[in-house]
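Design request, tokens follow.
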């Protein structure tokens, strides 16, 4: 399913986006979708607090480490 996403930006920003998209051989919509995917791919899926909670929970356990040399 596709949804419409509307953003208000200045005319100068829109001109810049148009130039960049044209230079890269993309439509403005294509450029926005690609750029949005790139930015989202660098964002953590979970919050740092959630990750810390999982690490702290895992640290409560004591697992055997038999078979590891030097321990």
């Amino acid at each position: 399913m596709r949804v419409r996403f509307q953003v208000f930006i200045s005319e100068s920003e829109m001109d810049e986006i148009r130039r960049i998209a044209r230079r890269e051989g993309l439509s403005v919509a294509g450029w926005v979708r690609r750029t949005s995917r790139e930015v989202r791919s660098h964002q953590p899926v979970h919050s740092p607090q959630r990750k810390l909670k999982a690490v702290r929970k895992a640290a409560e356990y004591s697992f055997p480490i038999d078979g590891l040399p030097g321990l």
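Comment from the thread starter after seeing the answer: thanks! Helices lie at 11-23, 28-41, 48-59.
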